[in-house]
Design goal:
The chain contains 39 helices and 29 strands. Helix 13 crosses helix 29.
Length: 974
């Protein structure tokens, strides 16, 4: 099969060639005249399961022949006889063990890290331990590092690193990496004494990990061994290969790992043979990319070699360069091209590490009922079962909010059993939501739900089911992980099954089955985590779900593919789209290392941060060698300008420095092809100018207009009459937010109650006693009415700030006080107009001289005199109601004064401008105006400020018209 020339056999494939197909083609060429059984003697090691599957798929397409033995390099860790070490510990179990050790360390040493970071720290430590074992680095190499700065950070890092030292000791149950390395060492030692007589090929690996590198060295030295390197750069001259020896300057180069391998084997780059005689898909482009990606110290080669590049038209002719204004447009342009590929029967693959971009592309494709075949699948925490489980976990909090409960009840998996009436469940959920929005408590309790259930008999069984599941008692304190998990799953099953108890759809379909598998795996290894608190359990579960994934290939389009960079090494397509080519996305920046900086990693012999960038560069070089290629990026992301990927920068700078015969530039030609698709996106998203929208002034029939308004509505009748039309004619009310919060209206209501109770408890003999009583009443009522501890403290402090000022004023008011009435209801009718004004006064003081004084509390800024005279007439109208005997039990009274008591940051007393105008006559005229059938309720007639918000702006379509437009009368019938 191979010629014996006394040197290690190293082969390479060109960038752009589909590696599995090229591998199989080369085998076919070499074995075409060999006996049939020779195929079965070939042993092939590949580095990913996807490549193993792809090779099998291609082989099974025919012709008929015996299949070679296909092995996964990482499966050596599970080989039963290569080493006497026990089988490796599953990765999840090891991480749970390390999490337990981290938790113990944090409980012993204060200030090392927050408890919420336990599982993240365990994952990071496990990754460091895997790397040390894979590279053969002992813990002593870390502890003995030459560190000049021994302050703080390094000492803390060593505390964490030392807790995993036990896993390196003799007799410890090995990890996957430990047993993998031991198996490889045992296998290669056995080959030294008894080399196999059949061909052994390791294909598709770059040798970036230490254990795989050792295996590649061993196979290369076998009599019938061979290495096949993917995306080998045959166009790079030897003088450049020589510059790749230093990892400090070359680790991020796409060919660095091959340079390191060839040096270790004593092979010159020009001794690497092409695996097949097939030419690359785009040979001119491969030369261009090879020159563009030269190491930084030798970019002066551009001037020397650039002018000699040939066929640049061919090199760039099949490249579309697209720079979109933002990621949304980028995704839409890609989706349009994918749709055309689907219509034309082409296979098209999007390659990007940016998962947000791929989700945008998938969403855009869904408009045409195209579901791409996404190799990465969907993380389990984003699937319906995963989200459902996380929503259920929110019920473990000490207090359950309306939002948390309704999110669960509205979830498609809630009460999903076929034996349940899902429609009735949704109706009940809607009714419950309306109740909770209008009058629900901030935090739910079974009592609150049962109170609502009294309205209709059909609610009671449904509420029994909710209370029995959503309000089930969760474990407390520190408990074994499996107990948390069992209870969590029991609650989730009950909510999914519904009141009937029949099995719901939680664990059905592909996402449910994959989520169940992840949960079962966690349950199997739960004892390794020890006893955990709710916070730890939540972090562990979220970590497990985010690490898992699910795919439903039955719904995916066979020709529209989304690949990560790893999958791009295995397959190719008619059209390859390299998307998200911005620096920081592709390549991704090195992940922050909480343990070792770059210098310490180099000292210890660990992998440098640039390794990942170099692998990404190799993926890019392979993928851009395809026949037809798109390269795309967005100019802005999250309102910030982006930086082009360093590889695009290099290609652009190189091409712009090379003259084009027609005077244009190759980059401009490539961009013009991208602009065509951007123009298509703009055309698709173009909107027609909206029809002229008038500023409405709605005139309903007289018999539909309100005949009774509250004094607080009169301000809106003057400023925004349309709000009165929407509220009292259409009977529309703004829904309160589902999530209750300690907002300004609630604060005002509570302080009103406090002052009402204080006044009713008076009179007071002295300021000290009064202040003590005020603060005591405030504390009690805040405890009763405000369930948020932080808001209680802040509002109590607010009361304390105005307490002295208010008490002094109150003692002065009590000097003339006979009695005081609070929250008193009033009503006055205009007989000639058939209209009634109603309202509630905060406080009416009956004075010793037979007069009355009316007060209104304001927790914000009281209105000015001008505002009261023209717009905010509430207090002045209450004065008129008091004069006419409109308040219950008081009769007609002479009013001595009307005052706002402002309780804001600067407390003040503001007297109302009584007597400056005939308020009642103006009010009667206002009411009479709206009893004219031609008079409409105009939208935003005289708002306080231009940006003031009305509850009914969306109904009046404000924004499609401006307040500069005259109101247009619209007669309607109810």
């Amino acid at each position: 099969m191979f010629n014996d020339h006394g040197l290690p056999r190293i082969f390479g494939t060109h960038s752009g060639q589909e590696f599995p197909a090229t591998l199989l083609e080369g085998l076919t060429q070499r074995l075409q005249h060999s006996p049939a059984e020779d195929w079965a003697r070939v042993e092939i090691y590949v580095n990913t399961r996807r490549m193993q599957r792809r090779l099998s798929e291609l082989f099974l397409k025919g012709p008929a022949r015996l299949m070679p033995k296909l092995h996964l390099v990482t499966d050596l860790a599970k080989h039963p006889t290569l080493t006497d070490l026990p089988m490796p510990v599953p990765a999840l179990r090891r991480r749970l063990e390390i999490a337990q050790l981290v938790r113990q360390l944090l409980s012993q040493v204060d200030g090392l890290a927050p408890r919420s970071a336990v599982f993240d720290l365990a994952n990071s430590l496990a990754a460091l331990m895997d790397e040390m074992q894979g590279e053969g680095i002992e813990p002593d190499a870390i502890t003995n590092l030459d560190v000049s700065d021994v302050s703080g950070h390094w000492e803390r890092a060593l505390k964490f690193i030392n807790i995993v030292q036990r896993y390196f000791e003799h007799g410890a149950t090995p990890d996957v990496e430990t047993r993998q390395r031991a198996s490889v060492l045992a296998l290669t030692e056995g080959w030294k004494t008894s080399p196999p007589e059949h061909p052994i090929i390791l294909a598709g690996s770059t040798g970036s990990r230490g254990t795989t590198f050792r295996l590649m060295q061993a196979i290369a030295h076998l009599p019938k061994g061979a290495l096949i390197l993917p995306g080998f750069d045959f166009d790079m001259p030897n003088r450049v290969w020589e510059r790749l020896a230093d990892p400090k300057t070359s680790e991020d180069h796409p060919q660095y790992r091959f340079s390191r391998l060839l040096t270790s084997l004593g092979i010159e780059p020009n001794q690497v043979e092409a695996w097949t005689s097939a030419p690359p898909e785009a040979p001119a482009r491969n030369k261009l990319i090879s020159l563009a990606l030269r190491p930084a110290p030798v970019t002066h080669h551009w001037r020397q070699e650039g002018p000699s590049l040939e066929n640049l038209d061919a090199a760039t002719g099949d490249i579309t360069w697209l720079e979109a204004p933002n990621q949304r447009v980028e995704a839409m342009a890609i989706a349009l091209r994918l749709r055309q590929a689907a219509d034309d029967g082409q296979t098209a693959a999007v390659i990007t590490p940016d998962r947000n971009l791929t989700r945008r592309i998938a969403t855009a494709l869904s408009a045409w009922n195209i579901t791409p075949d996404d190799s990465a699948g969907i993380p389990l925490n984003l699937t319906a079962p995963g989200r459902f489980l996380l929503h259920v976990l929110d019920l473990a909090q000490p207090q359950t909010t309306s939002e948390a409960l309704l999110v669960l009840l509205k979830h498609p998996l809630a009460q999903s059993s076929s034996a349940c009436d899902r429609g009735q469940h949704l109706l009940n959920t809607r009714d419950l939501e309306l109740y909770l929005r209008r009058s629900g408590p901030a935090f739910l309790s079974p009592e609150a739900l049962y109170k609502w259930a009294e309205a209709k008999d059909r609610y009671r069984p449904w509420v029994d089911w909710i209370v029995g599941s959503a309000f089930a008692t969760w474990p407390k304190g520190t408990q074994p992980l499996d107990r948390w998990l069992d209870h969590h799953c029991a609650v989730a099953n009950t909510l999914s099954n519904g009141p009937s108890g029949a099995e719901g759809e939680l664990w059905q379909k592909a996402p449910g089955r994959d989520t169940k598998s992840a949960i079962d795996d966690l349950a199997q290894h739960a004892p390794a985590a020890g006893d955990v608190e709710l916070l730890d359990y939540s972090a562990i579960l979220r970590g497990v779900l985010s690490a898992g994934e699910t795919r439903d290939q039955n719904q995916a389009h066979p020709n529209i593919l989304i690949w990560g960079t790893l999958e791009a090494r295995v397959q190719s397509a008619d059209l390859v789209i390299l998307a998200g080519l911005n620096d920081g996305t592709w390549p991704e920046p090195p992940a922050p290392d909480p343990w070792l900086n770059r210098s310490l990693r180099l000292q210890a012999g660990l992998l440098l941060p640039e390794r990942r960038i170099g692998l990404s560069a190799h993926d890019f070089q392979q993928a851009i060698g395809a026949k037809s290629v798109w390269v795309t990026r967005s100019l802005r992301s999250d309102d910030a300008e982006t930086v082009p990927s360093r590889w695009l920068n290099r290609i652009e700078n190189l091409l712009n420095g090379l003259p084009k015969p027609d005077g244009e530039s190759w980059v401009k030609d490539m961009c013009s092809r991208g602009d065509y698709w951007l123009d298509l996106v703009e055309a698709i998203e173009a909107t027609t100018a909206p029809q002229h929208t008038v500023r409405p002034s709605v005139a309903p029939p007289l018999n539909s207009r309100p005949t009774k308004l509250a004094v607080t509505d009169i301000k809106h009748l003057i400023r925004d009459p349309y709000a009165i039309y929407a509220k009292h004619v259409l009977n529309l009310r703004r829904l309160d937010p589902l999530a209750k919060s300690p907002d300004a209206p609630l604060r005002g209501t509570v302080i009103h109650h406090v002052l009402e109770a204080f006044v009713e408890a008076g009179p007071w003999d002295d300021a000290t006693t009064a202040k003590t009583a005020l603060l005591s009443l405030s504390a009690d009522m805040l405890q009763e009415l405000v369930p948020w501890p932080a808001a209680r403290r802040m509002w109590q402090a607010r009361v304390a700030r105005f307490a002295d000022w208010f008490v002094v004023g109150e003692l002065q008011r009590q000097a003339q006080l006979l009695s005081s009435k609070t929250e008193i209801w009033g009503e006055v009718t205009l007989p000639a107009l058939g209209f009634t004004l109603v309202g509630k006064a905060d406080r009416v003081d009956l004075l010793r001289d037979g007069t009355a004084h009316i007060y209104d509390y304001k927790t914000g800024q009281p209105p000015s005199n001008a505002q009261q005279l023209h717009f905010d007439k509430q207090l002045l109208l209450e004065v008129e109601m008091l004069r006419q005997g409109g308040f219950e039990g008081l009769g007609a009274l002479r009013v001595a004064g009307a005052t706002y008591i402002g309780l804001g940051n600067d407390p003040e007393v503001a007297a109302a401008p009584m007597g400056e105008t005939d308020v009642w006559a103006e009010f009667s005229e206002l009411v009479a105006t709206y009893q004219d059938p031609e008079q409409g309720y105009a939208a935003r007639r005289a708002m306080l400020t231009a940006d003031a918000v009305s509850d009914y702006d969306h109904l009046s379509r404000y924004g499609e018209w401006s307040t500069n437009q005259p109101a247009h009368s619209l007669k309607v019938s109810k």
